[in-house]
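Appendix B, record 7
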Amino acid sequence: METKIDEILQQLRLLAGVPQKLDTLADTVKEIQDSVRTLKHDVADHDDRIVKLEQEVLALRNSDNSNKQQLRSLTLRIIGLPQTPEEKDDLRGRVYDVIKPILVAAKAAKDLPTVPQAASIFETVFRPYQGEHGKSPPPVILKITSRAVKLALLKHRKHLVPPEQGAGSRAKILLVEDLTPENLRVLNLLTKSKTVEKAWSVEGVMRALRNCRLI
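Structure tokens (predicted):
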């Protein structure tokens, strides 16, 4: 009997310490909860800072891209014009022969007062790099002297006449705006989109037609 009483007393002594342990555990849980709330607040604060930094980076990137495009505001590209040995001596004259029908069409439409000569419309004409055999020719960069001529060239570019390539064939060449890599990437995405009927650029600004609506 005494042994059982001793066991009961021992269990009662153990139970007597439970409330204190529970209080200690509750304090520990509260400290952990406070720490978690502080961490959540810090994480939210860091997230806000990251979002703001991302917005600032995007704004700087857009501003930088816009500035780069502005520097190209009077620049066009001819894509697909085959290289010839003769153009080393007179690339300007060769390009003028290709775009002259555009200038004639622009004058007929009264978008230009006269058909300007090469010397008056080209500031510079060059290829940025040499082409490789069997690959597409590098583009020709045209720095135009006036915005009016540039817009007239783009408006009437369907009249562009590709040079003869032998056997009655003609090279397929394009006259386009000289876009920054970022703007060109966006234009390509729009062009490849299945929901976009047509995409183009106007002075570096992207335009697209979707469901017969301009976006």
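Remarks on this record: The first helix runs from residue 2 to 16. The chain has three domains: 2-69, 73-178, 179-215.
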